[in-house]
Structures are given as C-alpha cells and as structure tokens.
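Record 1 of the preview.
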Amino acid sequence: QVQLVESGGGLVQAGGSLRLSCVASGIMFWAKTMAWYRQTPGKQRELVAEVTMSFGTRYRDSVKGRFTISRDNTKNTVYLQMNNLRPEDTAVYYCNLSPTPAQWGQGTQVTVFS
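->
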C-alpha cells in the first residue's frame, strides 16, 4: 500500500522560502517519477514539478526559476525547495507519482501573504 507523508508547509511572507518534504513507502521509490502537485479550493489539482528516476526535472511555467525539485533515493524522499514565493503559490501541496498518481496523502498547506 502506497503511503505518502508531506511536511514543511507553513505561513510565509511573499519573497520568502519554504522547503517541502515527502516520504514515500510501499513503492519502488527509486524507479518512479515523483511529482509535487498543488490544489486551491474550487480548482483542479495541478502538477507543479516532477523528477524522473534518472533525476530529470520538469516544472510548470509559473514556478520555473523559483522552485527546485529533488529526490534522495536512500531516504525515499522527494523535496520541493520554493524560493521567492508569491501569494498565488498559496495552496495545499501534495506529492505523488507521475503521470498516474496513487492514493493521495494529507498534503501540506502553504500560505503566502503579501
């Protein structure tokens, strides 16, 4: 059974930084493309960034140059370093597999105020 536990969210002023972490279990983590997604009330969940098993990365345009996704296969953990945060980055952030997500975790709330 896949289990994903996100952490690291919080309340931050615009221009600030946060680092999200997600520990995965129940999967062959090293062989999976992992991704961070986010969702705001009334909107569909959207892909923010992903990292492949060979450490290739891809980002949505609005976070390019500000967010960095990385992974540590020894810890079954994927990270999202978020710099220069904007109010529009406010959302619940989730990690999961890509392109086909498994069961969702509880997510971690990121709130950016101006």
